[in-house]
Every structure is written in C-alpha cells, then in structure tokens.
Design brief:
The protein is of the alpha/beta class and 285 residues long. The radius of gyration is 19 Å and the shape is globular. The N terminus is likely disordered.
C-alpha cells in the first residue's frame, strides 16, 4: 500500500501545484529524494530527529534522480536529495535549484551469484569486471530508468569502453521502483548488477547474491542536497528548507546521525558524512 501511495503522490506532484500545506494550513518541508536512502531508513531517521528538535515537519516522496528533478522543475518540491552530478549541475545551471550542497556518500558494489560465471570476484577495477561480464555474456540486470543508480552504472560501462547491449544485458521493467526490487529481481535471475551498499546490506539476509567487486574509487556514490530556487518558484518553503539544510549539514546534528546510522543493526555504517562543515570539523582535530 505504501508503494502505491508513493506512486500516486509522484504523479500528483507532476501535475498539480505545490501541496506543501498541512491539514491545519501550516507549512511543512517537502523533500523529494532518491529511493535508496528512503528504503535504508536514514531519511526517516533524519526527518524524525529534525522535527523533534525544531518542531518543523518534513515529508518526502521517493523517486529516481531523473524523476526527482523533473518533479522539482515544476516547483512542487522544496528540496531534493539526489546523486547524479551531471544532472544536478544542469538543474542548477538552468535556474531550478540554488546550488549543490554535499551531504553524504556511500559506495556501489558489483554483486552476482556465488558461482560467479564471469570470474570477476576480487577484481580491483570495476571496469575490468564489467568487461569480463560482457565478454562472457553473463546475465546483467540494469534499472534502465535514468535514475542516479542507472546513470552511475552507465558511467562505469563508459569507463570500460563498452556500450552494453544484447540478450545478456536485461532491463528490469520495474526498475523505477528502486534498488530493492531491482536487487531482489537480480537475485531471482542469478545475475549480476551494480547496486549501492546500503541497499545490499539492508536485504542481504533475503538474497543469495554475493559482493564480488568493491573498493574501486569509481564506485563511490555522492549524494547532494539542492534547494529549489525561490526566485523561480516563490511559493516554495525556502525559510524552513534552509533551516533543515543547515541542520542536515551540521557536524553536531544531521552528520552525526548519518555517521552512526546502520552500525547497530548491520555492524557497519550505511552512509558516510560529507558536508563541507563536516570536512572542516575533521581538519580541526
């Protein structure tokens, strides 16, 4: 039911003007975020603590980065959280967002069946692994939806000098629903895919796929905040949005939650703080 409601809300936001009003007429912040941090739970943890401390409500809708930015281009969102640098830069350059604000990062993995028919386990370079998958014709599942994850995957193929195509390279028809469904489908097909670590750790007990390639710098996954431009869309809740942004990027507030999120449940962090304020605080120590 929750997924169905989310789909309808995305459609509603694409069609109608801003709905950032609570039932009592008071304003709240409307965040459109890439899906993986929502599925992992870190978005909810951040929103809940922020509201507890400030009394300001944040509501979110999840979509792939491409769709998230499309929604924001209509002025129906106050803040976006996305992870595709080229799309982010264009969004800002076109005047829809004020600026890109570093928030956090995690990394992508290349996962696949334990039998590893392409023989990629332990390779240091993601590009080498993808080339072996292509050369062997081993089944690879892609989201194919122009989401941040899909764009990151395509950049990796580009670095390998390849344009994947053929029966072995399959688009998951429901890829726009996010990384969790895509990973579960890949597991069912005993195939390979590129997926973020947070998604893998959050459902690793439900699947049989193994981490085969990790640690390549090319696999880092940076996430940014972009406030929607109030000069272009005066109705956005910029005042509360900037309070939220300041809180999220504070080394003593949101960045600490990001640093610790997932450690107790999964034994390791799912995301890593990356705000400019966080980086400056580390230099002082």
């Amino acid at each position: 039911m929750k997924k169905s409601m989310s789909k309808w809300l995305v459609l509603f936001l694409l069609i109608f003007p801003s709905i950032a009003l609570a039932a009592d007429g008071s304003k709240f912040i409307l965040l459109s975020s890439t899906i993986a941090p929502i599925d992992a739970g870190v978005i909810g943890a951040l929103e809940d603590q922020f509201e507890k401390e400030t009394g300001i409500t944040v509501r979110h809708v999840g979509a792939g980065t491409g769709l998230t930015l499309d929604i924001a281009r209509k002025g129906n969102i106050d803040l976006v959280m996305v992870h595709a640098k080229s799309l982010e830069e264009k969004f800002v350059a076109d005047g829809f967002g004020t600026k890109r604000i570093p928030l956090m990062y995690n990394d992508y993995l290349i996962v696949g069946p334990a039998t590893d028919p392409a023989g990629i386990k332990g390779l240091k370079a993601a590009a080498d692994a993808l080339k072996k998958i292509s050369d062997s014709g081993s089944l690879f599942i892609t989201r194919g939806d122009k989401s941040g994850t899909h764009l990151a995957e395509m950049e990796l193929w580009g670095k390998a000098g390849l344009k994947p195509a053929g029966a072995w390279y399959a688009v998951y028809e429901k890829g726009s629903e996010g990384n969790v469904p895509t990973l579960k489908y890949t597991d069912q097909k005993e195939a390979y895919t590129v997926i973020d670590r947070a998604t893998y750790l959050s459902i690793k007990d439900q699947i049989k796929l193994s981490i085969l390639v990790e640690g390549d710098e090319a696999l880092l996954n940076y996430m940014s905040l972009i406030p929607v431009n109030p000069a272009k869309f005066p109705r956005v809740n910029n005042k509360d949005t900037m309070i939220f942004v300041k809180w999220l990027t504070s080394p003593k507030k949101g960045q600490l939650i990001i640093r610790d999120f997932g450690k107790e449940k999964f034994g390791s962090a799912l995301f890593f703080p990356n705000s400019e304020e966080w980086q400056k605080s580390k230099l002082k120590k």
